[in-house]
Write a structure and sequence with these properties.
Layout: E1 7-11, H1 16-27, E2 31-36, H2 39-48, H3 51-54, E3 57-61, H4 67-81, E4 86-89, H5 105-133, E5 137-142, H6 155-175, E6 180-187, H7 202-210, H8 221-232, E7 243-246, H9 250-253, H10 257-261
Parallel strand pairs: 1-2, 1-4, 2-3, 4-5, 5-6, 6-7
Helix pairs in contact: 1-8, 4-5, 5-6
């Protein structure tokens, strides 16, 4: 499953799942462009990379809701490494844990700008570059189990992730003739910075998450990153339009995340950045 010839762009690369994706693709020998609006997190990512990995990593600061920013990042990937083979639309925000009646238009619009508009723009711009390259490619969108069932996130977060899943299916059909595969990963309880309320430590939140699903531990960003690597590889060449659940059996057990951890969570878990 060698990815040494692949050029990969990952949004939300500065922390959590995005950072794990960067590390896993670099370990596979890929050339990676990390994209994030947080310049400091990208600088830390670069400093923490191995010498060999650092030579194949470059970072771009930008906003996924800006088509200009994403087009610029893709142009950078092509200029620096010669092509774009894989696009991981991973940038995320955590929606507020308030109910519908307490959710503001600003909350809703911000969630959809990052989680849906960003995925649409990233897929669109990546597809343009991949079509020009003539060899097809792979788009991996980070969705969530929150988009598949009620009780696993705030209203705006869940609705946005549902939109990502449906958009992924549509894009897979639309782009199949170009040999561009489009798939979604649906994480469950993944311990990332977005998932930790301000009044809890990582360890405390990890203990809460340990009881959320049948598997006897919470999910880690690496669990999701490994699936992204698989979906991006040629081994998965016949997989497109899929939503791959990575949740330790959470959906199978019947989701009521809000009920199980309401006492410990002050805002919705993200798990996608």
């Amino acid at each position: 499953m060698s990815l040494s010839s692949k050029v990969v762009l990952i949004t939300g690369a500065g922390s959590g799942i995005g950072r794990a994706m960067v590390e896993r693709f670099l370990a596979q020998g890929s050339s990676v462009v990390g994209f994030d609006r947080d310049e400091d997190s990208l600088a830390l990512l670069e400093r923490s990379s191995s010498d060999a990995g650092r030579e194949r990593l470059s970072n771009v600061v930008g906003d996924v809701s800006s088509e200009e920013d994403l087009a610029g990042a893709i142009a950078h990937a092509k200029e620096r490494y010669g092509s774009l083979d894989v696009m991981c639309n991973n940038a995320g925000v955590a929606g507020p844990s308030r109910g519908i009646l307490e959710t503001s238009v600003e909350d809703w619009d911000n969630a959809f700008a990052v989680l849906v508009r960003g995925v649409f723009l990233g897929t669109k711009q990546a597809a343009v570059a991949m079509r020009e390259g003539g060899s097809g490619g792979s788009v991996v969108n980070t969705a969530s189990v929150a988009g598949m069932v009620g009780g696993a996130g705030s209203s705006c977060y869940a609705a946005a992730k549902a939109a990502v899943i449906q958009f992924t299916r549509y894009a897979a059909v639309d782009l199949a003739s170009e040999r561009i595969r489009v798939n979604a990963i649906c994480p469950g309880g993944i311990l990332t910075p977005l998932a930790v309320p301000r009044d809890l430590s990582d360890a405390q939140m990890g203990e809460i998450m340990d009881g959320m699903q049948p598997w006897p531990r919470h999910g880690s960003p690496d669990d999701v990153a490994e699936v992204a690597v698989f979906l991006a590889s040629d081994v998965a060449e016949f997989i497109t339009g899929a939503d791959v659940v990575v949740d330790g059996g959470l959906l199978a057990s019947g989701v009521d995340v809000a009920g199980r951890v309401r006492a410990g969570i002050q805002r919705a878990t993200g798990g996608s950045a």
